[in-house]
What we know:
The complex is a heterodimer. Chain A is of the alpha+beta class. Chain A has helices at about 1-30, 35-65, 70-95, 100-150, 155-180, 180-200, 205-235, 240-390, 395-410, 410-445, 455-475, 490-510, 540-545, 565-575, and strands at about 455, 475-480, 490, 515-525, 525-535, 580-585, 590-595. In chain A, a hairpin with a 3-residue loop joins β4 and β5. By secondary structure, chain B is mainly alpha-helical. Chain B has helices at about 1-25, 40-50, 65, 115, 130-140, 145-155, 160-170, 180-185, 195-205, 230-235, 245-250, 280-290, 300-310, and strands at about 220-225, 255-260, 315, 320. Chain B has a two-stranded antiparallel ribbon. A two-stranded antiparallel ribbon of chain B has the order 3-4. Chain B is globular, with a radius of gyration of 22 Å. At the A-B interface, α3, α4, α5 and α7 of A face α1 and β1 of B.
Amino acid sequence: MRLNARRSLLLLATCAMSLASVLVYLYWMSKADENGTYAQARDLIRQIKQYDAQWEGAVLKSRTTTNYNYDPLVLPLLEMKRLWREFDTLEGRNLQTDRLAWQSAFRDYQQAFDDKVLLVSRFKSHNAILRNSLAFLPAAADVIQVHLRQLVDADTLRLRRITSDTYDLMLSSLEFAQTTTDDKAADILVGLNNLSVNKERLPVDFQVPIDTISQHIALILREQPKVDQLLEAIEAVPIAERLDAIALMLDRDEQAAALTAQRYHFYLLVFSTLLVLLLLYMGVWLMRSYAEINRVNRALVSANDELEQRVERRTQALSQASAALQREVDERRQLENQLVQSEKLASLGQLAAGVAHEVNNPIGFVSSNLGALDDYFGRLQEMLKAYADAENTLIPNTLSAELAKLRTEIELDYLLEDIPALIRESKDGISRVARIVKDLKDFSRVDSSHDWQLADLHQGIESTLNIVASELRHKADLVKEYSPLPQVECLPSQINQVIMNLLVNATQAMGAERGKIALRTGASENRVWIEVADNGCGIPAESLQKIFDPFYTTKPIGQGTGLGLSLSYGIIKRHGGEIRVDSEVGVGTTFRVELPIHQARSA
Amino acid sequence: MPICLQVRIVAVMLVVLPALALAQSIGGPLTPLPAVPELDPARVELGRKLFNDPRLSPDNSQACADCHRLDRGGADGQVRSSGADGKPLPVHTPSVFNASLNFLQFWDGRAQSFDGLVHLATGSAAEKGDGWSAVVQRIAGDPAYQAGFAQAYGKPVSALDVKDALVTYQRTLLTPDSRFDRYLKGDTSSLSLEEKHGYQRFQEYGCIACHQGVNIGGNMLQKFGVFDDYFANRGHVAEADRGRYNVTGDPDDLYLFKVPSLRNVAVTAPYFHDGSAPTLEAAVDAMFHYQLGRTPSDDDKALIIKFLQTLTGQWEGKPL
Lengths: 603, 320
C-alpha cells in the first residue's frame, strides 16, 4: 500500500517535472534575442566597418603626406581586432542556423583582414621611404645646381644641359609619383642613364650629389609602382564586403530566430493553455473529491455521534436498570426491615395491649377502691371528730387523759390531715397510670395499624411525647408551637413512630449542655407539616445525603440500628408525603415532615 | 623647353605643395607619451614580482629584470645578452620601457602586443612557449603567489593569468615627461635652440618618416639597408639577420625589422638588432647611410644627436 503510494508520488513528480521542463524549454526557445544580441552584433560589425573605413582613410592620407604619423594605421587594426574578438565570442553564443556558412564567412573575413594587415604593413614600409625620397628630390636637385654653379671653368652649355636634365628627371619622377605609367618609367630610366653618363664627365666630388639623387630617383622608380600596387591591393581587400555578408547573415539569422521564437511562442501559448485546462480540470476534480471526502467525513462523524449516543443511551439504560435494581434491592431490604420492625412493633403492641389490658383491671378497681376509701375515710373523720368532742365530756378525767395521750402519740391530727392527701395523690397516680396505659394502647394499636383513619396528629404527638418524656426531660427543653391541624388521613401508629424517631434523634444530637427542641406544626390548603428542630451538633454535609439510607448510622455499633430514619422515610413516602432535613454543623438540625391531608389512593 | 619646364614645375608644385601644407597642418607626426594607465594594483604588483622572479627561466637562473634592467633604460647595455645556457642570444635586448606601445614585439615583429610582452628567458627568445607549464607549476606551488593570484584574479594560478599579470605590469612601464614630451605639450622652453634645430633636421632629413608616432618608432617594419647592403658590408650574415623573413618566409620580408622606438635612445646603447652600433653617432651615421641615402653635415648630425638626447623620459619620477 505504502509502496504503491510512493510509486504514484514518484510518477506524479516525474509528470510535473517533465511538464515544467517542457514549459521551460518552450519559454527558452521563444526568447528571441532577448538581450539584443543581434543588435549588439550588428553594432559591432558596424563599428568594425567604421574602423576599416578610418583605416583606409589613414592609408590614403599617408600616401600624399610626407611626414606622416603612422599610428592611425595601427590603431584601427587593433580596435578591429578587439571588436572582432568581441563579436566572435558574442556570435559563438548565438544560435547559428548555418554553421558552415558562418564558418566560411568568419574565415573569409579573417583572411581579408590578415591580407589587409599584411598589405598595410608593407605599404607603410614602402610608402615611408618613397615619401622621403620624393620630399628630398627638389632639395637634391638644388644641391646639384649649387654644386654645378661652383664649377666655373666648365662648359656652361654642358652644365646647363646636365642641370636641366636633372630637373627634368626630378620633375619626371614627381610626375611619375602622380601618374605611374610604364612610359614614364622608361623615360626616367633613360634620364637616369643620361645622368650617369653625364656624371662621368664631372669631377669626382661632383659625382656624389648626382649619385645621391640617382639613388633616390631609382628608389622612386622602384617603390612607386609597389606602393601603387599595394594601395590597389588594399583597396581591393573585400573587408567591407565580408562585413556586409556577415551583417546579411546576421539579419537572416535574426529573422530565422524570430521565426523560431514566434513558433515557440505559439507552442508556448498552446502548451500553457493546455496546462491551464489541465489545472482547471484537476482543480474541479480536486474540489469534487474534496466535497466527496467532506461528505463521507460528515457521514462518518454523524455515525460516530449516533454510535456514541446509542452507547450513552444504553449505558444510561443500563445504569438506570442497575439503579432500579439497587432501588429494588434497597426497597426489598427496607421492606424486610420494616416487616421486621412492624413485626417487632406488632408484638410490642400486642405485649403493650396485653399489659394495658391486664393493668387496666387493677387500675379500675384500685381507682374505684380509692374513691370508696376516700368516701369511707370522710365518714370516718366525721366519726372521729364526734369521738373527740365526746372525749371532753368524759368523766373520769383519767380516761380522757389517756385518750388525749394516745391521740398525741399517734399524731391523729396529722393523720387526719395527711390521709386525704395520700388518697388524693394515689388517685392522681392511678389516673396517670390509667392514662399511660391508654396511651400505650393508643400507640400500639396493633389491630388498627393498617387501617387508614382520620387522626388528630396532636394527640399522636402528645402520646408519643409521653413515651419518650423520661428520656427527653433530662436533656432538653421542649417547646411546642402548635397550630390548629385538621384531621389527617393516616396510619397514626406509624406517624407516631416517625415522630418518636425524630424526637429520639433530636435528643441524641444534644451534647453535654441542655438543649432545646422545638415541635412545630402547621397546615396549608391540603397538607399538614410537622417540624422537629433541635440546636444540637448538626449533621455534616457529606452525611446529609446518606441519613435516609438503611443502616446508615453515626452511633457506636450496638446502640443504633441505622433503621430509624430509613423507616421514617419509608412511612412518609407511603403516606405520599415528604421528609426533608435542613442541618448546619454546630447550629442544629430541622426535620420537616409534610403529609397530605387526604390520601389519593385511600380507596 | 624652358617654358615647358616651367609649366611642369608649376603643375608638379600644385600637386605637391598642398600635400606638404596638409602635412604641416596636421601637426607634428610625433605625439607625447600617454600617462601611466591606472591598472589593478594587485595585478601590477603580481606582475612586478613575476618580472623579478628567476623562476620564470627554465633553470631558475634569470629573471626578466636581469636583461630588461629598469635601472639601465630597460635593457642591459650588452651587445647581446647571455641566455640561460650562457651563450649570447641571437639579437640585442631591446628596452622594456614603452614596449607596450609598440604595434609588434621583437625585432622581427613576430608577436602582437599581448603575447609579445611575455617571453621566457630561455636560451633563445625564439623558443618562447616551451617550458611554460613547468614555470606555471613552479609559480602555482608558491603559497605567496597562490594568495596573490587568489586576491587579484579570484582563481588559482593559470598560465593565462601569469601572462596577464606580466603584461599588466609592463603596461605601467612608461617613461613620460621627457623634455621633448614637455615641448610637444607646449612648453617650448624645455628645448634649447639647438635641440629645436635638431628636431627640425630630424624632420628634414626624413628620420621622422619611420620614427614617428607616440613611440617615435615602433609602429612599422622597415628594411635595414635601403640604399646600401648593410649585411654585405657587415659580413657573416646570421639567421637572425634575415628579420621578418624568419616569420613569414616571404622573400619580400628579407631584412625587414621593426623600426625601434627612439624614446630613451640616449641611454640604451648599443643599437640595432645586432647591437653593432656602440654609440649614438655610429647609429645615426648608419641610419643616414643605409636608410636615408644621404650625407648630413657634421653640424646637422650633432644637432640631431642633441635632439635625440631630449627623448629620455622619467621612471618613478627620476630621469633614466
